[in-house]
Predict the structure.
Amino acid sequence: MFDNVAEGYDRTNAVATMGLEKLYWRPQTLAEIAPRKGLKVLDLAAGTGASSVKLQEAGAEVVSCDFSVGMLRVGKRRYPDLDLIAGDALRLPFTDETFDVVTISWALRNVNDVDLALREMLRVTKPGGRLVVLENSHPTWKPFRVAYLEYMMRAVPVVAKAVSTNPEAYEYLAESVRAWPAQEPLARTIEGSGWSRVQWRNLTGGLVAIHRAVKAG
């Protein structure tokens, strides 16, 4: 599915989120990661690598990993200097305690086993290292939440039909957002997989949330 939407994926996301992804949500996640020279970051489910470029520009040593070879092909053409690796979040192709930070954006809900994926991220993180997750979440104000779900289920597929090469994929993505747990249950899942000091921060009234955690030293 992601191979089929790779070419227009970044453009479709920009339109469907009305620019919030690029202008607000991604910069907030970048600030949470706090990339700097010498920091080794795994950008998991990096897609075409658009998020990885910002980390690299800040001086971090970045590995971009994605399950979709189609996404990585597009990324290699656009950003030839990125370190792009095909890999499965449930069986990461990295040795233990490799990275200072592991980050995943809008993809944790797409893995087949969330707990196993989180444990794999924990395995490849150094003691004292961090996890940063950006994901769709549950708006904290109920009327807003109802309107948001209505938008996701009805408007996003329509928008995708106009700008995406595979609009059917966005029907699945809208369904996955509806089924995804709220902030607190996700925090419990992260903690249950072995991470410590789990916290979250709502963005745009809880439309999305950044969850962060630390690997105990």
The first strand starts at residue 40 and ends at 44. The chain is about 45% helix and 25% strand. The CA atoms of residues 13 and 58 lie 23 Å apart. The beta strands are 40-44, 61-66, 83-86, 99-105, 125-136, 196-203, 208-214.
